[in-house]
Amino acid sequence: MISAVSMALCIAVAFAAFGWSAHRRLRLLRAGAPAQRLDRIGDRIGRLFAIALFQKKLPRYLVMGPIHMMIFWGFLVLLLNTAVLWGRGFHPAFDFFGLLSRDHAIGTAYWMVKDVISVIVLIAATLALLNRVVRQPARMTKSAEAGLILLIIMTMMAADLAYWASQVYAQGITSFHATEPFASLVSMLFARAGMDVGAVTLLGQIGFWTHSVLVLVFLNILPYGKHFHVVTSLPNVFLSNLEPPGKLPGDENIEKVIAEAEDAPDEPVFGVGQIQHFTWKDMLDMYTCTECGRCTDNCPAARTNKDLSPKHLLIDLRNHLYAREKEVLAGKLEEKPLVPDVIKSEVIWDCNTCRACEEECPVMNSFVDKIVRMRRHLVEERGEVPSELATALRGMETNANPWNISRMDRDKWSSGLEVKAFDGESCEYLLFVGCASSFDDRAQKISRAVVKLLNEAGVSWGYLGAEEPCCGEMARRGGSESNFRMMADMTIETFKELGVKKIITGCPHCFNTFKNEYPDFGGSFEVIHHTRFLADLVAQGKLQPKETIARTVTFHDPCYLGRYNDGYAGPRQILSAIPGLRVSEAVDSKDRAMCCGGGGARYFMEEDNAKRVNNKRVEQLLTTSPDALCTACPYCMTMVSDGLKAKDLFDAKGQMDVAEMLAISCGLEDRKLLRETPPQS
Ligand code: SF4
Ligand code: SF4
Questions:
Q1: How confident is the model over 548-568, as pLDDT tens digits?
Q2: Which residue from 58, 226, 291 has its CB within 8 A of the most atoms of ligand 2, so it is best to mutate?
Q3: Nearest residue CA, atom 8 of ligand 2?
């Protein structure tokens, strides 16, 4: 009777307290801006299984990944055990109506698995604690909370083992028993130590109450720290963004202003300027951050000692959200802006929008959308733009290119080549060159190589010459949504007027924008990056790389081709088709490739600390001792070249686009381009 009352009281108080905390957190979420995340339920369930239940991303970290997986899966198995223990507070033989009795096949199987799992969780939690205390990985937040939680887990497991061992002992089992291996081993120890039934029963009861109550304590600690992810990570993964990662969210107010809509607010807010401008899903991301630091560990800005650390950005936002709970719930606007009062503006402008953070995050938190919406507020609402970026944006407005070179010069790169103006009747493909490959001296050579390859393969194509507009990508990532919309509208209109249906582009930024973002503005086209297109032409035998290039190259994956659009295979297929060419994979490649430093409009901004992202990336690429660095993006080409110059290796190591390599091997480009890539002596 005392046991039943005590257990009922513990459970009632603990669940009431947890309910109150959960309600607080839920109310705060409801104060966030709206977001639609209940579409495509089947896909969401699939992601829930892959990412959350099967912990797909965790093995990327070889030590803590498997340890965390053991604890997570162990907890799932042990939930039933805890329910039985709570039930035994009311009835000492509670076993879910015989289902979990040792005489039942299900019960026998469950208790055997549970017995092993609880010891695995005990070992995993001990290793996790040692990892924190002894190894102290820099990426992890040093916090007493994390240590306390691990100690609680260890104590819960040890207490559980003591209880079940006492049960085994009470049945007279004091030798090894395969159905409960660890409980029977501990029972053996009790017997060897000469403990009588009374002492073992007392120890079992202590274990029973310690486990049962600690679970309830654990539950109530969760909402007040990083371990809230135990509750929120499953819904966070389920509700994560299913749109292509390369598609940024639009801005409802900017759209209304552009459309001169009747319901446009008199004083519209653009982007995110205060904590309550974030959506409820952004806030759920904040709740769910486990502070594991995997995002920061892979962030090029953090790796080069910039102010930006994605983990700390999210934690600072979360702490601010909790601190301003009353004001947010009351709908009060703050007097001080989020940037720079809570987040330094350098943090917002340091981002390369490379998505390395999102690729790593085990709970599917997003960063690029949050950072761009904060930039949007600075640019559109407050007119605060880094000066170099402001110059580039003016160039886009004046001459439809961020270099602000006369648009009449846009087609100079094609001088002497066999080119044709696009018309929808006679051209199957539009070759969209992009601003960088039209105006940058080095990148123009890539455009020339692509033209020769298309002609050689007999592709039906045309280009827009001096009439080619700008896709606007740089403006969007730089926070100037209105500038982007202007560019996008102009480009879509041009494409539609000319009857464009299929687009080949060599710039991964144009590619991503056309493919993933233009459909939102009425422009749906079939878009293909030149690496994929050329790889297919090689596979079809329409291009035949014959000339040997006896070089070793390392390929740098452009973020907007690889991580954003899964374009890893095309460039590698082309390179591997070239006779004599050896491809040596970079240490960090494919989805783990580090950004060149040019993404997120950073190409047009100064990088003024000692360690530049492109220098760091080039250092990584050179660890494989290649003769040349190869890439498939005009921005990456410049950043990699500058990185080599900084190391005085510009003349010693070549820099080539995949298309140029292919054109040389097909005998279409002068091998003098290769003189930039002399073999290593
Ligand atoms: S997108 Fe790239 S640069 Fe930006 S926070 Fe993430 S990892 Fe860092
Ligand atoms: S955002 Fe994700 S990767 Fe970064 S610390 Fe939080 S849980 Fe870890």
A1: 999 999 999 999 999 999 999
A2: 291
A3: 292
pTM of the model: 0.95
CATH architecture, range 2-28+40-238:
Up-down Bundle (1.20)
Right CATH number for 259-275+284-304+317-381 from 1.10.1060, 1.10.510, 2.40.50, 3.30.70? Answer: 1.10.1060
Query: Which residue among 317, 352, 368 has the greatest number of ligand 1 atoms within 8 angstroms of its CB, and so is best to mutate?
Result: 352
The answer, yes or no, to whether any atom of ligand 1 lies below 6 A from the CB of 352, is yes
CATH topology of domain 399-536: Rossmann fold (3.40.50)
The identity of residue 192, as a single letter, is R
- State how far the alpha carbon of 637 is from the alpha carbons of 175, 602, 603, 604, 614, in Å: 69, 14, 11, 14, 10
Domain 538-676, CATH class in plain words: alpha beta
Rounded CA-CA distance 205/186 in Å is 15
Atom index in ligand 1 nearest the CA of residue 356 equals: 7
**Is the shortest distance between the CB of 314 and ligand 2 below 6 Å?**
yes
Index of the ligand 2 atom closest to the CA of residue 289: 6
Residue 159 CB–ligand 1 contact under 6 Å: no
Residue pLDDT, tens place only, 45-54 = 999 999 999 9
Length of the chain: 681
Cα separation, 270 vs 379, whole angstroms:
9
